Sequence to fold (130 residues):
Amino acid sequence: MTGDVIYGAYARSMNITGIDLTAYLVRDPDRAVAFYRDVLGMTPTAIDDQGRGAEFTLPDGSTFGVWKPDDAATGGAIMFAVEDARAAVEYYRARGLGLSDVMESPVCFMAFGADPEGNAIIIHQRKTRD
Fold:
């Protein structure tokens, strides 16, 4: 490979294919969830069982969330969809993006990093549903 030229299936696994979630990082997730639920009338579609936040899937299929991170960070977060999280993390690390190791949840694989302004970037691969 030369420069940024990547060929075949390898290239597709690194390409960002969409946005799976946009979110605000909050200090008080209960207050934030109540605001979006009670003031804006959005119904939570996933609520974290540890009280860290919730997600709201909107009628157009997009998902918005409010989450309290482990550190005191606030700001924005975006979850970029990829076909292969592990390959994408390797690729983006080589390009200078600091990313965590890939973590697995019951529904996805994800790795966490940040842009130069400190906004969260999450590389995200949904698991296929059988």
Observations:
- Residues 40 and 77 are 20 Å apart (CA to CA).
- The helical segments are 8-14, 29-39, 85-94.
